[in-house]
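Dear colleague,

Following up on yesterday's call, I've attached the two folding results inline so they're easy to grep. Please treat them as preliminary; we haven't cross-checked anything against experimental data yet. The first protein's sequence and structure tokens come first.
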Amino acid sequence: HPTEKPPDLMKFYIENSSNPDDLICDPFMGTGAVGVAALESGRCFLGCDLDESYFNIAKHRLKEI
């Protein structure tokens, strides 16, 4: 997972390209930065990752929001 997705940058994109309560999907969520940004922006989020260790990190991060 070499791609960095800063939550603040993702939040900017999400808020400018969707509406509150829209569903944001990230099929390569890594540690969940897009999910964090989506939830903080009032959107719903659906994400998955093949690597269980990254998935568990994201799950923990998202539960704290």
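Below is the second protein, in the same order (sequence, then structure):
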Amino acid sequence: METVSYPLRIPGELMELAKLKSKEQYMDQATALRQLLYMGAEKYVLELLREGRISAEIAARLLKVNIHEIYRIAEKYNIKLGATLEQYKKGLEKAKNLFK
């Protein structure tokens, strides 16, 4: 993963969360802050995916995971990806009618 330096002012409350996370999980504050940032990015990307504004493939690329992992992450946020069982049945019925 490529990293980029960026000057940033961080709210004190967010730094307090990073300090707490770093103490509880035995890591440095910079790592804790990056993890909190990633958590927010993950939630935002999944929201875009849920709204249909991006595809699962784009979501996977943005989060640097494979497509199967996107489905697992979506379950964590109670987001259903792909066709529902009813949609699948309708599609199957339409396909049967086409080939009659």
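For the second protein, one point worth flagging: Residues 29-50 form the longest helix (22 residues).

Best wishes,
A.L.
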